[in-house]
Amino acid sequence: MGIFLPQQIRVYPFRETMDPAFCQLYSVGRDLVTDHQYHWDGMTRADGPLFLFQYTLAGWGHILIHDKIHRVEPGDAFLVEIPSPHRYFLPETSPLWDVSFILFHPGHLAEPWLQLLRHWDSIKNIPDSSAIIRHLHSIIHAADKNRITDGYLASSYVYQFIMELFRDQDTEQAESYDWPLKVRQAADYLEAHYSSLQSLADLAEHVGLSKFYFNRLFTRHTGYSPLTYLTKVRLEQAIDRLRNTDLNVEDIALQIGYSSSSYLIRVFRQWFGCSPHEFRSRERAILY
Q: Is the pLDDT reported for residue 13 higher than 70?
C-alpha cells in the first residue's frame, strides 16, 4: 500500500488528562502480528474502558462481532468498545496481520458517540488516502518522533481523530440515505437557518408535518433527532470559527444561534469534553 510507518507501540499514561472529561490517548502504533497466539477478547481484557480503532495494512485477520466472523483484509478497519462482546485474532491460515491502531478513552461525548458506534457495527473498507487514516498515521509518526509530550497534546490528537470519524459518518449518511422529500427539506432549512431557528415545532410546520411525526421521520432517516442535528450543525459552525477566526466565544455563540457564551460552552463540553477556548488552544498548538 506504499505506507511507511515505524514498527512500534507507544503507551501514554499522562496524568494531566486522567480526568474523565478529557479524551485520553492510551496507546497508538503499528503491530506486525505473526504469532498465532494473538487473540484479544473484548469481554476479558483488563485495560478498558477503551475504544479501539484498528486498520489493516497487509495480511489479514479475523474479528468476531455479533456472532459473525469477518475476514479483515488490507484497507479494512473496525471500531470496537472495550469491554464489549467481540474477539479479534490471527487465524492459523493467515501468515501475518500488519495493522495500525489507536486505543483511547472518548471522554464525555454522550449521545453522538453512541450513534457513531452504531454506525460502526462491523468492518469498513477505508482507502489509505482518507482523512481518517492519514490522521491516524500522523499520530503514529508524531509518537515515533517523541512529539507527543504531554496529555493535552495527546488529547488533541484524539479529538481530531474522533472528528474525522464523525465527518466520515456524516458523508456516508448523506450518500447512503435516500431521504424523503420532507426530511431533505427540513435538513436544508435547518442548515440554512441554524442561527435563527427558534423552535423545532416551527421546523415541523415549515415542512407541513405534525411535530411528533416529523421528529420520528427525521430521526429514522438521518440517524439524528432534529435537536441533535441542529446542535451538530451549530457546533460545526462554532468549530469552523474557532479554527479560522479570532472571534471570541461570546460572538461565536451569538452568530450560531445561542443566547450566550455560557450555553455554548456547556453544550460544547458535553459533546467534546473540553471548552471552546481549550479546543482552540489545542488546535493552534498542533499547527504551531
A: no
